[in-house]
Amino acid sequence: MDTATHELLRYAPPAQAQAKVCVRATELAGAPIATGDTVTVLLGSACRDGARFPAPDALRLDRHPNPHLAFGRGPHACLGQPLHLAQPRATLPHLSRHQAGLRLAGTPHREPNPVLRGLISLPLSTAA
Fold first, then answer.
1. CB 14 within 8 Å of CB 71
2. Which of 5, 30, 44, 49: disulfide with 16, CB 3.0–4.6 Å?
3. Over the stretch 30-44, which tens digit does the pLDDT of each residue have?
4. Comparing C-alpha atoms, which of 38, 11, 9, 10 is closest to residue 22?
5. Cβ contacts of 125 within 8 Å, gap of 6 or more
6. Please, is 4 exposed, middle or buried when counting C-beta atoms within 10 Å of its C-beta (0-12, 13-18, 19+)?
7. pTM
8. 25-82: per-residue pLDDT in tens?
């Protein structure tokens, strides 16, 4: 389940972008970035980088290794990562046991936010 969870996070990361302030002058792909410049890091795009992930637009639940950036990295990584990983560990095994009977019972609704992605509701039912 952990491998599948990380692939789902890579495929549809909850945070799409993150703003950072450059702490020292650098260059990225030939573009200079000065100390103090704000840079927007597109995490969702990085998780689909074809140079890093073979078949980046394919959902492969057995993808390994999976160096996605869904939670960021380093000292500014998401503090909620342990909780976010605990949720699918608790629910996916139960859902997988009942997957044959699960049906979409309505329209899924997404959070209307261009930076943070997620579902507000996902109505499911079980076949009788």
1. no
2. 44
3. 999 999 999 998 999
4. 38
5. 102, 103, 105
6. middle
7. 0.78
8. 999 999 999 999 999 989 999 999 999 999 999 999 999 999 999 988 888 788 999 9
Question: d(Cα 81, Cα 89) in Å, to the nearest integer?
Answer: 13
Query: DSSP label at 44?
Result: H
Other residues' Cβ atoms within 10 Å of the Cβ of residue 121 = 10
Does the structure show a pLDDT above 90 at 88? no
Rounded CA-CA distance 100/13 in Å is 26
The first and second tokens of residue 102, run together, are 């699960």
What interhelical angle do 81-97 and 2-11 show, nearest 10? 110
Residue the block writes with tokens 């605990």:
86
Strands 18-21 and 38-41 come out as: antiparallel
Q: What does the alpha-carbon distance between residue 47 and residue 63 come to, in Å, rounded to a whole number?
A: 13
